[in-house]
């Protein structure tokens, strides 16, 4: 430090110390100088706060873009989502803030309403309960599922439900659900064919684009009930011919890629699954088990599910082929039926299976 300069140490006291010091001055227990020495707070600071010249709550820097309540809600969402098995990527948090700011049209310094690295750093400083860590990369051998791991997952699920005072859900299969998505090819391989023993040119003409795949989201209960599905198409706007082919209670999703997104998943839960639950008078709350690889749990969906009594919980990673009912039993059966429907369709007509004709055919397979 150069000669003649003085290094100041700012805020070497807590907010509680400041409140206690001001209270002692008001009650005239000690003099201003004595309180300053006792708590290590400058006399000028105490004098200005007592006289109302400066706010009682100290604050540095400009106002945050989000309010204290909004940031507290973000903190709660991040922590609880991680505890349920869905740890969040920083980009997902930034995307959520961007959607909020675009919705409420609040002025902000961000490019396209999306916060950057500096905002994230300051947000983490304001919320020390949240930490940012690198994901551990593990080998296939270490990722292998063990009996102990499965038993531990069931124990953690039981403890979570007990903590939420909802352990009775496990005794009611009508309140336990599993949701997952699968892809159905418009031109699947229909199996082995018959022909001359030594004939090499075994082939069949494709009834449509060979690699075209349509995403279907299905949800089933442990009691065997099936909620209406959602079918997702790669469109900006759903063509009328496709829209009119849908049953009234099915969901129509759309995304640029044709895959499920957080927006389409929210639409499904809010407009298809939840109304179906309420219509059937299924007791709330319910448990909805999801694949841990899903990134569809946005803050809007989390808030909706929390308010309506839908408890989201992550299945054990790398074990969905063992634990997930959709993978273990339901989807295999659906795809077997779908291949049979395609085979019968080929026998009746030479017309290709397209997005326009998919829904009436798929409905026969579920």
Question: Overview of this structure, please?
Answer:
Keywords: DNA-binding, Nucleus. This is HTH CENPB-type domain-containing protein. This protein is α/β, with parallel strands linked by helices and 366 residues long. The chain has 3 domains: 7-60, Arc Repressor Mutant, subunit A (Orthogonal Bundle); 68-126, no CATH class; 146-193 and 205-363, Nucleotidyltransferase, domain 5. It is 43% helix and 11% strand. The chain has 14 helices and 6 strands. It has helices at 15-26, 32-39, 43-50, 68-83, 90-104, 117-126, 140-143, 147-163, 240-243, 262-279, 299-308, 320-323, 325-348, 355-363; strands at residues 176-185, 213-221, 226-233, 251-254, 286-290, 310-314. A 6-stranded mixed beta sheet has the order 4-3-2-1-5-6, with helices on both faces. Strand 3, helix 9 and strand 4 (251-254) form a beta-alpha-beta unit. The longest helix has 24 residues, at 325-348. The N and C termini lie far apart (77 Å).
Q: List the uncertain runs.
A: none
Principal-axis shape equals elongated
| Tally of individual helices | 14
Total domain modules: 3
In N-to-C order, the SSE pattern is: HHHHHHHHEEEHEHEHEHHH
Helix content: 40-55%
Q: CATH top level of the largest domain?
A: Alpha Beta
Q: What is the CATH topology assignment of the largest domain?
A: Nucleotidyltransferase, domain 5
- What structural class is derived from the secondary structure elements? alpha/beta
Beta-strand level of the residues, as a percent range?
Answer: 5-15%
Main location: nucleus
InterPro entries: CenT-Element_Derived, DDE_SF_endonuclease_dom, Homeodomain-like_sf, HTH_CenpB_DNA-bd_dom, HTH_Psq, RNaseH_sf
Pfam family, one: HTH_psq
Domain HTH CENPB-type: 58-133
């Amino acid at each position: 430090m150069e000669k003649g300069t003085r290094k100041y140490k700012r805020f070497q006291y807590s907010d509680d110390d400041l409140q206690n010091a001001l209270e002692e001055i008001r009650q005239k227990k000690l003099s201003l100088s004595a309180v300053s020495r006792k708590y290590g707070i400058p006399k000028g600071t105490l004098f200005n706060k007592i006289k109302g010249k400066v706010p009682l709550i100290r604050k540095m820097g400009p106002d945050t873009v989000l309010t204290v309540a909004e940031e507290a809600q973000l903190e709660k969402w991040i922590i609880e989502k991680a505890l349920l098995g869905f740890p969040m990527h920083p980009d997902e948090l930034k995307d959520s803030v961007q959607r909020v700011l675009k919705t409420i049209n609040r002025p902000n310094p961000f490019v396209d309403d999306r916060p950057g690295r500096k905002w994230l750093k300051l947000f983490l400083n304001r919320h020390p309960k949240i930490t940012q860590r690198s994901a551990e990369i593990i080998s296939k051998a270490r990722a292998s599922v063990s009996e102990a791991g499965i038993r531990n997952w069931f124990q953690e699920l039981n403890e979570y439900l007990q903590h939420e005072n909802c352990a009775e859900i496990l005794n009611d299969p009508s309140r336990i659900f599993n949701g997952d998505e699968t892809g159905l090819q418009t031109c699947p391989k229909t199996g082995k064919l018959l022909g001359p023993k030594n004939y090499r040119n075994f082939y069949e003409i494709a009834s449509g684009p060979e690699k075209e795949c349509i995403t279907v989201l299905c949800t089933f209960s442990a009691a065997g009930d099936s909620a209406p599905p959602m079918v997702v198409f790669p469109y900006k706007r759903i063509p009328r011919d496709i829209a009119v082919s849908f049953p009234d209670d099915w969901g129509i999703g759309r995304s640029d890629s044709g895959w499920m997104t957080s927006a389409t998943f929210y639409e499904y839960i809010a407009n298809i699954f939840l109304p179906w639950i309420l219509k059937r008078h299924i007791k709330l709350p319910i448990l909805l088990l999801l694949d841990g690889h899903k990134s569809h749990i946005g803050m809007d969906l989390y808030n909706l599910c929390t308010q309506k009594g839908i408890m989201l919980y992550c299945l054990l990673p790398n074990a969905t082929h063992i634990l997930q009912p959709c993978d273990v039993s339901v989807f295999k059966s659906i795809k077997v039926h779908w291949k049979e429907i395609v085979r019968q369709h080929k026998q009746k007509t030479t017309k290709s299976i397209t997005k326009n004709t998919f829904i009436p055919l798929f409905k026969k397979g579920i």
